[in-house]
Design goal:
CATH architecture of the largest domain: 2-Layer Sandwich
Strand order of the largest sheet: 3-2-1-4-8
C-alpha cells in the first residue's frame, strides 16, 4: 500500500497524518504553530518533528513507509512551489521552505498553499467530486481560498491566486494583519468571531451575560470552537455572532460568483464546523446579493466533507501525485 505524509500549517496548529491513496488518514498528530515572533527555523523544526513522529508511528503500526511529504502552507506560495513569499500569520517572508526542509527530511517534498490543498482533497474525494469548476473557502484564523477550473487548480501567474481573504469588503474598515483595512477575513473568520464575542464581553454588554456564563466568566475561553458549542446549546448571542459571520461570508461569495461563476462553493476550515448556523445565513445573503439573481444558475454552497482535515488530505494527495512524477 502506497502511503504519503500530509502536513497542514495553519495560524494556530500544525496537523499531520499518514494517508493512503484513497485519502484515508491512517495515523495523525498535531502541534501548536510557533508564535509569529519566532524565526522561520522554529517553524521548520516543528515540521521536522511532526514528520519524524509520523514516520515512527507508521513503523510502529506496521504501515508501509511513506514515500512523499506534501505540505499545505498558510501563505502565498510562489509559482516555483518551493518558496513561501508571505504568510500573514507566520514569520515567513520569501522563505525557501522546500530547500530548507529538503536538507532535513529524506523524502520528496511538495509545497502547496493550504487552501489549494484543501480544494484538491474535496475535488478528489469529497464535496467537489465531479465538479469541473469549484471554489474553496477555508474559514480558520483567517480566510483562505482556492480555484478549480476544468479539474485543475488555478494558481495564477505568480502562484498567489485565491487569496480572497484579503479582498476589501469594507473601505476603511477593521485593520487586517496583512496591513490593509476592511479585508474580508476581518468580518468572516475565526478571528472575527472571537473578536466580536470578546468585544461584547469586555464592554460588559448584557448580550454577553449568558455567553460568559458558559465559560465561567473567563473571557480568554471565548474561542471559536467554544462559541460554536455555545450556539449549538441555543445561546441567542452566540447564534447571532455566527449569523453575522455567515452574512459576511455570503457577501464575499456573491462577489466571487460574479467573477468566477463556479458550480459549487465548498466551505471548510475550523469555523465551518458550525454547519447551518453559519451556512444558513451565508446562503440567504448570497441569494439576495447574487448578480443577476433569478436569471442565472446559482452555485451550490456546501460544507467541506473533510472539515479541518481537508488541508492535510489534499497536501498528501498532491505530494504523492507530484513526488512520484517528473517535475
Amino acid at each position: 500500500m502506497r502511503t504519503a505524509i500530509g502536513l497542514d500549517i495553519g495560524g494556530t496548529k500544525v496537523s499531520g497524518g499518514v494517508l493512503d491513496e484513497e485519502g484515508r488518514i491512517l495515523v495523525r498528530t498535531r502541534r501548536d504553530t510557533p508564535d509569529r515572533s519566532n524565526a522561520p527555523r522554529v517553524v521548520e523544526d516543528t515540521l521536522v518533528e511532526v514528520v519524524d513522529e509520523l514516520l515512527a508511528m507508521a513503523e510502529e503500526d506496521g504501515i508501509d513507509r511513506p514515500l512523499t511529504v506534501g505540505i499545505g502552507a498558510a501563505g502565498f506560495v510562489a509559482a516555483d512551489r518551493s518558496t513561501v513569499v508571505f504568510a500573514p500569520h507566520l514569520s515567513w517572508r520569501d522563505e525557501p521552505l522546500r530547500e530548507s526542509l529538503g536538507c532535513r527530511i529524506d523524502l520528496p517534498i511538495t509545497i502547496e498553499n493550504d487552501a489549494n490543498a484543501a480544494l484538491w482533497a474535496e475535488h478528489r474525494f469529497g464535496a467537489a467530486a465531479g465538479a469541473s469548476h469549484a471554489v474553496m473557502i477555508t474559514l480558520g484564523t483567517g480566510i483562505g481560498g482556492a480555484i478549480l477550473v476544468e479539474g485543475a487548480l488555478v494558481r495564477g501567474r505568480y502562484g498567489i491566486a485565491g487569496e480572497f481573504g484579503h479582498m476589501q469588503v469594507v473601505p476603511g474598515g477593521q485593520r487586517c494583519e496583512c496591513g490593509n483595512r476592511g479585508c474580508w477575513e476581518q468580518y468572516s473568520s475565526g478571528n472575527a468571531l472571537v473578536r466580536e464575542a470578546k468585544g461584547l464581553a469586555m464592554a460588559h454588554s448584557p448580550m454577553a451575560t449568558d455567553l460568559l456564563a458558559h465559560v465561567g466568566g473567563d473571557v480568554s475561553r471565548l474561542t471559536g470552537p467554544a462559541i460554536t458549542d455555545i450556539a449549538r446549546c441555543g445561546d441567542a448571542t452566540a447564534i447571532e455572532l455566527l449569523a453575522e459571520i455567515g452574512h459576511w461570508l455570503g457577501v464575499g461569495l456573491a462577489n466571487l460568483a460574479a467573477a468566477l461563476d463556479p458550480e459549487v462553493f465548498v466551505i471548510g476550515g475550523g469555523v465551518s464546523a458550525a454547519g447551518d448556523l453559519l451556512l444558513g445565513p451565508a446562503r440567504e445573503t448570497f441569494a439576495r446579493q447574487l448578480t443577476g439573481r433569478g436569471y442565472r444558475p446559482a452555485a451550490r454552497i456546501t460544507a467541506a466533507r473533510f472539515g479541518p482535515d481537508a488541508g492535510l488530505i489534499g497536501a498528501a494527495s498532491l505530494g504523492a501525485r507530484e513526488g512520484n512524477s517528473p517535475r
